[in-house]
Amino acid sequence: ETRAAADTMAGNEKQLNEVLRLLAMSLKADNERQAEVFKEIISLKKNEDFNRCLAIILCSAKSQPDAIRTAAGVLLKNSIRSNYHKMSTPTRNFIKNKVLQAVGDEKKEIRKTAALIACQTASEDKLNGWEKVLHHLVKMLDSPSYNDVDGAFNTLQKICEDEKSRLDSAELGRPLNILIPKFLTFFVHPKVEFRAYAVGSVNLFLQIMPQALRVNMKDYLKGLGILTNDKSFIIRKLVCQAFVSLVLQDLNTILPHIKQVIEFMLKATAESKEEVAREACEFWPILCEAHHTKGLDSKILKSYLPVLVPILLKGMIYSSLHLVYLGGDEDIEDSHIPDRKQDIAPRHHGPKVTKFYGANGDADTWDDDDEDESYWNLRKCSASSLDTLATDYKDDLLPFLLPLLRKSLDSKQTDWKITEAGILALGAVAEGCFKGISQHLNQLIPFLISLLKHPKPLVRSITCWTLSRYSKWVIHTDPNDEKFFKPLMVQLLQSIQDKNKRVQEAACSAFATLEEEAQERLIPYLEPILKNLMFALQRYQAKNLLVLYDAIGTLAESVGPALGRKELLKILMPPLMSKWQQLNDGDRNIFPLLECLTSIAQSIRGGFLPFAAPVFSRCLKIIHKTLVHMKQMGRSAMENDSTKEFIVCSLDLLSGLVEGLGSSIESLVANSDCLALLYECLRDPDPDVRQSAFGLLGDLGKACIGHIKPHLHKFMPVTISNITFDNNSASLCNNASWALGEIALRVGGDMSEFMPGILEKLVSLIKNPSAPKSLLENAAITLGRVG
Predict the structure, then answer these.
(1) Contacts 24+ apart (CB under 8 A), 633-641
(2) Helix/strand/coil (H, E, C) string of 57-85?
(3) What is the mean pLDDT of residues 448-456?
(4) What does the radius of gyration of the chain's CA atoms come to, in whole angstroms?
(5) How far apart are CA 721 and CA 715, in angstroms?
(6) 743 to each of 690, 707, 739, 751, how far by Cα in Å?
(7) Of 119, 111, 185, which is closest to residue 151 (Cα–Cα)?
(8) C-alpha distances in angstroms, 516 versus 474, 489, 511, 554?
(9) CA 49, 55, 61 angle in degrees (round to 5)?
(10) Residue 103 gets which letter from DSSP?
(11) pLDDT tens digit string along 621-633?
(12) Separation of alpha carbons 383 and 306, rounded Å
């Protein structure tokens, strides 16, 4: 290592060899030894000679294995990120110079690592003093060496991505005035990778539209026009991204060429290469949005609908690769197979309850994809585009869509994938084209119900979704329940028992939507509904239990106290309480069950009393254990921890119990440490915890003010201090204000000592022009109650 030896610092070759030894051991050692090695490495990170050694190994130790050099580079990048500003100026310059040497290394992996380090260093410097470095990198683009050009472009693109605005700053001499024209010259370079670097780099600046790009816009558009016929799908994909961004950021720029752009995007959307087609498909919703936000004439795109609609419908058809990803298309009976942990998307429980006078509040905190395949693909993008077109053009879309749907849904259609795509399309246009489609629903709904027995599970599952999109029509068109509503309900309940997990999930979601629309119309059928849902509760695996709990909770909210009949509770509660007992206090799967029980308690009110004591005490136990755990962990360690969700969810269930049981909750409150735990939660640093805690405080004020009154000296100051609005605390402020009003209404003159602080906070809030209307209304009512 002649060059490496020459680079060592004042005879520090021994340290260089020691670092090489540690790197080699870190790659080869077992887990226990690796941990020891990493401890040694971490202890050396702040040593400037150590960082110099890493730079030498990455950039100059060419006889070392690539893995060793790359490992040195990764460590150096991490060290720069955490210790750069503690390094001396000579060490920073040493690292910068060494890395620039490695940008053009003969090994691609080393070039990539050097580019990452250069970009990290540039970010730490905020590009101050980088004028010469940028000039050097631009000069490297003219090198006859492939490695130099590749490394320089990779580095420049990363810097452009992270430092877009600074590259246009006057203080740095506006480097973009040189960079953008230089990049444009590479649009016609014979090497596809260099064309990709160039287009990708310029595209980054479409978000901020700097003057350097505007000045060169004519050349940029000319270059994009040439590249629309590029043989590389990577380039065509980048061109699609450019046109999407241009419509979003500066429609007027491409307005003179809009027809040519649309024709290219039509061709790209129809491509067999999914990466290009998916990128192009993003264009259509953006163009529709421009009709409303940028005044684009909707007639321009309307003239292309006869071509676009068939392309989108074709894009909805499952590809062979997509089917492989999903595990095939066969009718697999997998309901008995336990879910893997990685199959269950993490669910986060935020504060559910936002309190309003005269209302129970609303809740919609669960955000989950109905489909297993969560990645964004051409099929989803095509369906989304069709949905947007339907919303924009409404029934004017149907002359181009209906003939295709008739063909897709024809009983003679032998390709189930085409049938499935047609069902998806029918669901996608349910809202936008409802008026025109509704004329055909008398025939379509029975046909769709029959498809719930289709041999292919993917057809059965998408049919559930599409039927849910028309559930409002079913409810309002069938007053006697017999023609559409009852057959749909019966078949969905049967689909909930399907032996395929995907169909189970889709059927549960569809049934929950039907429940929301049907409301009290479900009451005559509650017994068979509950029997089906409880049977599913015994069979479902972990993932689908989450959807089932949601369906049960939605049922409770939809039918209200009617669910509280004794014969119904005998069906409903024992299986749920059995699940409740099976889950331990630290199991995150308890969240959806807690939410389900909250909905039931609020709905059946006194009917929940026989089950209240164990639920009440366990919620307090969970809160206590979690508070203790959080204190032991320390607040700094808890910042990225989701443990608080156990408190939030338990507080929300307690709110539901108090709201449902009313004064019957008094004995449970009196014989517990509920108020002490509540006070701890009201003072918790986390706003989500406090929001739910104030919801519970207000409910307790309504149900058992006698227990709250002796503790006003504790509860009032903390409540008043939380009546402060900012954009991140509206719901918290709202709940604190609401709780204050509920308590004030019931204690009257005992609030007098707190009045100055209350009035100051409420008047200030009401005068705040930024506060949401609902918050202001709540605050005004509270002011009236305390006044």
Answers:
(1) 635/685
(2) HHHCCCCCCHHHHHHHHHHHHHHHHHHHH
(3) 96
(4) 32
(5) 10
(6) 17, 11, 6, 9
(7) 111
(8) 12, 13, 9, 7
(9) 110
(10) T
(11) 999 999 998 888 7
(12) 16
Other residues' Cβ atoms within 10 Å of the Cβ of residue 122 = 23
What span, in angstroms and rounded, lies between the C-alpha atoms of 149 and 413?
54
Residues of 162-191 as b/e, b for ≥16 C-beta within 10 angstroms?
A: ebeebbbeeebeebbbebbeebbebbeeee
Residues forming a β-bridge with 359: 356
Residue in the block written with tokens 């290219």: 264
- Of 754, 735, 664, nearest to 696 (Cα)? 735
> What gap in Å lies between CA 110 and CA 142, rounded to an integer?
21
> What is the C-alpha separation between 353 and 690, in angstroms, rounded?
11
Q: Which two tokens stand for residue 719?
A: 């409540």
Query: Given CA atoms 415, 418, 421, 422 in this order, what sign does their dihedral have?
Result: negative
pLDDT per residue as tens digits for the range 648-694: 999 999 999 999 999 999 999 999 999 999 999 999 999 999 999 99
pLDDT for the residue 673: 95
| CA dist., res. 239 & res. 196, Å (int) | 10
Type of residue found at 704: C
Using CA atoms, how far apart are residues 436 and 396, in angstroms rounded to an integer?
9
Contacts of residue 126, defined as CB under 8 A and 6 or more positions apart, other chains included, come to 163, 166
In angstroms, the Cα distances linking 405 to 301, 314, 470, 472, 696 are 21, 11, 16, 22, 52
Where helices occur in 146-190 by DSSP H, the ranges are 146-162, 176-185
Output phi, psi for 614, to 5 deg: -65, -35
- Torsional sign, CA 680, 577, 503, 483: negative
Contacts of 156 (CB under 8 A, 6+ apart): 134, 137, 138, 141, 179, 197, 201
- pTM, entire model: 0.83
Q: Report d(CA 427, CA 468) in Å as an integer.
A: 8
Q: Give me the amino acid identity at 767.
A: K
- Concatenating the DSSP letter of every residue in 273-342 gives SHHHHHHHHTHHHHHHHHHHHS---HHHHHTTHHHHHHHHHHHTSPPHHHHHHTT-SS----TTSPPPGG
Query: Which amino acid, 621?
Result: K
Angle at 363 between CA 630 and CA 574, to 5 degrees: 80
**3-class state of residue 455 by DSSP:** coil
Please determine, for residue 476, whether its predicted confidence score (pLDDT) is greater than 70: yes
Give the span between the Cα atoms of 385 and 381, in whole angstroms.
Answer: 6
Identify the CA nearest to 776 among candidates 730, 712, 739: 730
Whether the CA torsion 227, 232, 236, 237 is positive or negative: it is negative
Percent of the chain scored above 90 by pLDDT? 71
Residue with tokens 């005004």: 780
Q: Which residues contact residue 750 at a Cβ distance below 8 angstroms, ignoring those fewer than 6 apart?
A: 709, 712
Q: Which residues touch 371 (CB under 8 Å, ≥6 apart)?
A: 380
3-state secondary structure 477-518: HCCCCCCCHHHHHHHHHHHHCCCCHHHHHHHHHHHHHHHHHH
Q: How far is Cα 506 from Cα 162, in angstroms, rounded to an integer?
A: 41
Structure confidence by residue, pLDDT tens digits, 437-446: 999 999 999 9
Contact 376, 277 (CB under 8 A): no
Please give the pLDDT value at position 33: 66
Q: How far is CA 675 from CA 656, 680, 711, 714, in A?
A: 16, 9, 9, 10
What DSSP state is assigned to residue 608?
G
Distance between CA atoms of residues 359 and 429, nearest Å: 33
How far apart are the C-alpha atoms of 757 and 734, rounded to whole Å? Answer: 17
Residues 6+ apart with CB under 8 A from 607: 561, 563, 564, 565, 566, 569
- The amino acid sitting at 404 is L
